[in-house]
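INFO worker-7 received task bundle
INFO bundle size: 2
INFO processing item 0
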Amino acid sequence: MYQLAGIAVAIVHGLLGLALWRRLRAAFPRHGTWVNGLCAAGFLLLAHPALFMAVAGWSGLRALQRHVPEPLSMASMGLQVALLLVALPLAIAAAARAALRALRRARPARGVEATARVAAAAQPAADAAQPQAATAADAAQPEAVDERRRRVVVAATWALPAAAVAVSMGGVLASRQRPVITRIALPVRRELTSLHGLTIAQLSDVHVGNFMDAERLDELRDAMNALGADLHVVTGDLLDHHVSQLELSTRLLRGLRPARGETFFCMGNHEYIAARSADAGTIVKGLEEAGAQVLIDEAREVRLGGDRLWMGAIDYPSRGRSGEAARRPLRDGLTRALGQMRDDGAPRVLLSHHPGTFVQARDLPLPFDLMLSGHTHGGQISLGRIGEYELTPLLAAAHYHNGLYEHRGRRLYVNAGAGGWLPVRINCPPEITLVELVPA
């Protein structure tokens, strides 16, 4: 699969590179050698991740992460996004032109016949006027080329690529900025006085190893600890794709300092991807030895003074892949975890890496107050928001993308994540969520 993706991306790179080369040669006809060298160097810089994948698949991608300097990789990935931003408008314009041509060809034959009759009637007059037109054309002088207008047109053709590169490279820098803190309130009964002012800090989708080094992990640890939250939760995808990333992941967990001393963890899909290089038990054991309480379709009672809250989590839903046992069906996992939370008036918080599980959970008779999720990264490229829908080219429209949602008193918050698939974030910064329990 990764090899096919690499080949497809490399082909797209080649086609767009050829179009760019032609445009440069036309704009700078006297600098052919310079243009050729620039285009070749740019192609290798831009396309080397796709070339690694095309040659060696997943192993090539891992080799890229191990051996290519991180600044070069991040610059390359930023340019990949710039390519996407350029290619999408060009593809839409090309599709629109093709549709218009198809509509013109599909005109009714009646219209074509009428046009032919008009042309036949006008032919004698055109034949009579042809000698005079030819004489006038011969007498006409060639129109002078407006060099200023030509330069403006050439400059305008580069406006879109230049803007795409500027925006995407700005997105590379934004992906490394300090996480924004999003504060949300969870109302609880007024008599639960020990819980008023209690805070829960959420971290999600760190993706250790995927452009996430030890220095960046220390920044995330410090940002979490600076909040002074009573409890910490990590909603999956702490690892990225290999068990070797467990060492840095546990270093982050050991560095967390929740005020009440408890960190809860739910499994994400990438924990199971990493488990293919070992097994899920190894991943879970390493996380628990680092101080996290890994909850898999279960709930725990958290006592705080004379009051309590319930913290539960469900496993990442999956039907099982080759060599991997099928996990508990989603509905069964929800029923099991929620069934362990007594309906005693204490707030019930449910961790679920995938926010799509909210669709089933919200309609179950077993109640909960707040679900905390991640998985989507907020799309990483946000074009704004309409109602509950985040406008992003990387996610489906009907998905819970980022932010707070409510359905009949049950709430969902989707964290935009601290890491990412690519080291680029545009209008979607890294995020830490801080939940505060307030009197209802």
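INFO item 0 finished
INFO processing item 1
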Amino acid sequence: MHIKMHIGIDDTDSLSGGCTTYVGALVIEELLKNGKVKFLDYPNLIRLNPNIPWKTRGNGAIALRIEVTYDEVTKIEEEVIKKVLENAYIDENTEPTIAFLKGEVPIFLKEFAYESVRRVIDIDQAVKIAERSNLKLFTLNDKKRGIIGAISAIGLTLDEGDYTFELLAYRRKENYGKKREIDEKSVYEMDKLTSPYTFNNIDYEKNRILITPRGPDPVLFGIRGESPEILLTAFQKIKVYEPIERWVIYKTNQGTDMHYMDIKRIKELKCYDAVKLLGKISSPPKIIKGGHLILTITDECNDTIECAIYEPTKRLKKMAMQLQCGDIIKVYGVVKEHNNTLTINVEKLYVKKLEKIVRKRNPKCPVCGATMKSEGKNKGFECEKCKYKAGINLRKEEEVVLRNIYEGIYLPPPRSHRHLTKPLIRYTNERVNNSQQKMIKNWYWSETLHANIN
């Protein structure tokens, strides 16, 4: 008898080191070696609320969805736990957690998972959801914070709505902390060949490649794209001058804007929420200490909130300086508290409607065409050039001021994007048809398995 099995893994890394996706890759290899395991979907890389203050940089958890015989379940659970504990980066901040679910994912667990991408979740709430779902949990310590990520990864099945893929290549252990030996020219060539079906490979504003992380973690590089096939094409174009230990293709919610909740009223905002909020500019943009920009917007209930656009966003800040009172915008960002007052830290802007600015000017002289001069209130105009005089029947002309801004979406440069931020290039590539696709054969490779990507 065969049974579906979902495995969620979270919090195997810390700010000091480690990598949950790498631990996932090692677990995947262990399952593939088993010989009796069938993967039902690509491994899932789920990015949770990026605004949680105690998160590691990416706030990512993983889920593996497999089919096994019923009598293999206990053995697989033991193998997974052993592999995670052998490879997790454990310190006072890590709380490795593994969750196991047999059968279908219940609706209420899916709803909980979506909530965990957008808001702060209470641990007690997560424990209750796990119990209600008949999830089996393994936690290394009593804090249990990793439960939220592990069960959310299982719940967010990515069978509804948008999703993308990422191919992650890993280094040999002896190269951790060393400069990543990648031919940058080949990354530019790969981007030119595969764009717009891969994204955020390069920040052209700074001429900086973005596929390589900067820390001492196991990741050599990661390529994000719309399909496994395009990722393999891109991967084969990258020239690398150090050995690749393994690579894996993850299915993910990265680049989808999944974390933003549509909020109608400012009164509904809570600290650390990821939101999108429509409002009207109610005071001119102002620059504060540090070069940051503050916008004040008003909602439909006439409540106001300040929105902060930080100096490193560069082009987003430059654009926002052109906004005027009366403009209608939608801000995308995270709610934070400053001096006991809620503020939205802006990550992107949608300019919905620009206020028309009309300027009055003195009329042109009907004789010589020069601009006339007013002789005072209700006294008409005189042309200084030809001395022609006009009575009060000649009025000031109205001129619509051309503004250096357009309606549409505005984002910071790619180097400032968060994992979940949908880049402009994806606004025509969102996934709307989520029919189950057959997995490609070559979605995982490692030195030890001696696989072949061709």
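INFO item 1 finished
INFO post-check item 1: The longest strand covers residues 274-287.
INFO post-check item 1: The radius of gyration is 28 Å.
INFO worker-7 idle
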